[in-house]
Amino acid sequence: MAGNLLDNRGRGDVRWSWPPIHPEGRKFGIIAVVISLVFLIGLDWEIVGWPLLLLSLGVFAFFRDPERVVPQDDGLIVAPADGLVTLIAEVDPPTEMIVDDGSGHAGLEPGKVTRISIFMSVFDVHINRAPIAGTILRAVYIPGSFVDAGLDKASEENERQHILIERTDGLKIGFTQIAGLLARRIVPFVKPGDMVGIGQRVGLIRFGSRVDVYLPSGTDSKVLLGQRTVAGETVLAEIGSQKLIEGVSQ
């Protein structure tokens, strides 16, 4: 995996810098700035122009794409999204991840698994990352509605995209990008057949949304309900580990 190697023994070089803006968002930020300047300079409507200029900064901030230090351990599953863990439940994986899709690659096994739902507000980074390293087997887009992404039914009713990744040892992880009330487009960076590293950028969702992760059988969550995650850095689970973890909100 390309990048600066950092570890817990002090190796590597770290310095603060402004997070870059993803190319997908630059056009929106520039358009917002131009409209702001039209009101400020062209029409001399400061009461409209200044709020629009502040909104322009918010647009750029929404599409920020900071670097992340991704743990390099084959036994770990990392968070694919920044946000709040709003749901942890035992569910059946989506049908699109299970049925034979004609590609010759088997999907997930049927049966209950742990699903972790991460809600992204408009203030979170919206770049999504691969929870494991492997090959993209499926990327299935499904049109739908735009109900509140915090609701459980959003997994089945909202516009969404299912992504299935298989490691070299055959283990598969599925996760779903779900559009929310404000989100109106899921932007993929990968397609079936692509190989990705753990923590690699795989897509984004505009503006406010959710990501569901389906852990493999026999694996429990290492994050707690109400905990915040950082894409590519927070460890969601350790493969094959089942242990009750409790936390106290304080």
Automatic annotation (TrEMBL):
<protein>
    <recommendedName>
        <fullName>Phosphatidylserine decarboxylase proenzyme</fullName>
        <ecNumber>4.1.1.65</ecNumber>
    </recommendedName>
</protein>
<dbReference type="InterPro" id="IPR003817">
    <property type="entry name" value="PS_Dcarbxylase"/>
</dbReference>
<dbReference type="GO" id="GO:0006646">
    <property type="term" value="P:phosphatidylethanolamine biosynthetic process"/>
</dbReference>
<keyword id="KW-0812">Transmembrane</keyword>
<feature type="transmembrane region" description="Helical">
    <location>
        <begin position="25"/>
        <end position="41"/>
    </location>
</feature>
<keyword id="KW-0670">Pyruvate</keyword>
<keyword id="KW-0456">Lyase</keyword>
<keyword id="KW-1133">Transmembrane helix</keyword>
<keyword id="KW-0865">Zymogen</keyword>
<keyword id="KW-0210">Decarboxylase</keyword>
<comment type="similarity">
    <text>Belongs to the phosphatidylserine decarboxylase family. PSD-A subfamily.</text>
</comment>
<keyword id="KW-0594">Phospholipid biosynthesis</keyword>
<keyword id="KW-1208">Phospholipid metabolism</keyword>
<dbReference type="GO" id="GO:0005886">
    <property type="term" value="C:plasma membrane"/>
</dbReference>
<feature type="site" description="Cleavage (non-hydrolytic); by autocatalysis">
    <location>
        <begin position="208"/>
        <end position="209"/>
    </location>
</feature>
<feature type="modified residue" description="Pyruvic acid (Ser); by autocatalysis">
    <location>
        <position position="209"/>
    </location>
</feature>
<dbReference type="Pfam" id="PF02666">
    <property type="entry name" value="PS_Dcarbxylase"/>
</dbReference>
<comment type="pathway">
    <text>Phospholipid metabolism; phosphatidylethanolamine biosynthesis; phosphatidylethanolamine from CDP-diacylglycerol: step 2/2.</text>
</comment>
<dbReference type="GO" id="GO:0004609">
    <property type="term" value="F:phosphatidylserine decarboxylase activity"/>
</dbReference>
<dbReference type="InterPro" id="IPR033175">
    <property type="entry name" value="PSD-A"/>
</dbReference>
<comment type="function">
    <text>Catalyzes the formation of phosphatidylethanolamine (PtdEtn) from phosphatidylserine (PtdSer).</text>
</comment>
<keyword id="KW-0444">Lipid biosynthesis</keyword>
<keyword id="KW-0472">Membrane</keyword>
<comment type="subunit">
    <text>Heterodimer of a large membrane-associated beta subunit and a small pyruvoyl-containing alpha subunit.</text>
</comment>
<feature type="active site" description="Schiff-base intermediate with substrate; via pyruvic acid">
    <location>
        <position position="209"/>
    </location>
</feature>
<keyword id="KW-1003">Cell membrane</keyword>
<keyword id="KW-0443">Lipid metabolism</keyword>
